[in-house]
Amino acid sequence: HFENLFFQLTCLWIFCRLHASQRKTPWVLAFGLAAGFSIFFYFGSMALVFLLAGSHLAIRGMRRAGLDFALALPSFLVGISPLVWVHWNAYSRPGGFLESKFASQGNRSVTDFIGRAADFLTEILPQAGGFEDLGPLPGRVAEWLWLASFAVAWFSLLNELVRTRRALRTTAGAPAQERERARFQVYRWFPFVLYLPLVTLVVGTSTFEFTPYGPPVEVGRFRYLVPHFMVSTMIVGAACALHLRAHSRARTLLARGLAFTTLATGAFTLPIGTSEFAQPGLGTAYDGYLLRYFNNVLMRDSWVDASTGRLTWDHALVERQVHEFTPAERH
User: Fold this and answer.
1) Main-chain phi, psi angles of 137, to 5 degrees
2) pLDDT tens per residue across span 306-326
């Protein structure tokens, strides 16, 4: 699911350009369009879009942000319109997917939420990097190095958020534009600091499961966490920059340590490549057949019969598709 990162990064870039520009309107329209399309492309984009919208509200204030949201609404609807079309023409499957993950879970207790959130943070997240063993060093070493680097960087940004939030009091009597710029310096950290807590909340209150995948694509289990690694990488980079700008020997050493440990984990991905190229395309398919999925090929081209209101198929087309299978696949 890495393709969605482009659209999420586009939203983030537009957000930054919007608050750096004197002319807000073009960027507000662009953000609405990008936000809508990113949600169409990948439902998980709603987390970042929601946090960016909340940051915008904190920066611009209720009145100005409300006008911006109203201005962005038409372009947002244009961006998300492909999802509306798919929902309408695919028998509400997108909505059904969301309903199955959130609305059909019954009454769940606070204990259930805490258990799911704890499992996510202590079991799923540490493994999600998919690091391989590097010689005598187990992949678990890289997993904990990455997690430790991320934790230090996250708390660094949280500390910066609290510090700059306190400093806002000094701009109380400044012109409106200057106050807004000062608020941007504070609330630009919101999406980064709150991203993992929001994802944890979604996992804890939903039925999303990280079902194990078989070899050689075990990492597919963590496909929904690709945006988390995008955000966490930016968190580490931002924390390193903050520490380096402090012109403190201790914080400079901390920044270098963060950068080194984070980059060092990349070495644990090297074992997935070989110089012999003995098994090209190993991760593209499994050996053998999963016959229960063959129905999906045959049943996909359906429509609602106007007279009965029930799904129906072009039986001649289905028969032709069946004949395209090999004898082993047909029988």
Assistant:
1) -90, 120
2) 788 777 888 888 888 888 887
